[in-house]
Amino acid sequence: MIVAIDGPAASGKGTLARRLAEHFELRHLDTGLTYRAVAAALLAKGLPLGDEGVAIEIAQNLDLAQVDKTVLSAHEIGEAASRIAILGGLREELVRLQKDFAAAPPGAVLDGRDIGTVVCPDATVKLFVTASPEARAERRTAEMVSKGQEAEYASVLEDLKRRDERDSQRTVAPMKQADDAHLLDTTEMDIETAFQAAVDIVSQACNA
Questions:
Q1: Fewest CB within 10 A of the end CB: N or C in the chain?
Q2: What percent of the chain has pLDDT over 90?
Q3: What's this model's pTM, rounded to 2 decimal places?
Q4: Dist CA 62 CA 158 (whole Å)
Q5: CA-based end-to-end distance of the chain
């Protein structure tokens, strides 16, 4: 059983993916963290983000079990990850890792930008989770403030819009809703309402 969840930043897809994995007793992979891990390694070494050869080498030695969301959640790492995500060779390497993760029993919930279209096109069920840029900016700002980070709503909103454009316009595996994905707009939903809606979608797909 494979559940593919795609959507833009701060749409709530990560929280939904983790909770769905727990609910259906599946493994979970936030594929964005694989790009963040590579970006963080490049930044730590002081290497240019466009150095695809080094980025691929880092990806080949990536241990998914050691990817730490807390360490990789920094805003600058997220920005760097979005920039290296356009590197075709790097994407191929990370997609291979992600496919292997999804294929292992008993199955998995993967969230990212191209899960339903590229990584797991034959997933049991696909969700495209979205929300208005304004709602996502409010959530991201509140999240950053709660962690003691400085955050200004207007700046966060502009960052999200730039990231949306970069992710949706890139030539390699752009972010888009798969033709057979269920659209879940969480703009007016709290997390519990969104979670129950997602559970219903997955359950119906499994019983179809």
A1: C
A2: 81
A3: 0.91
A4: 31
A5: 13
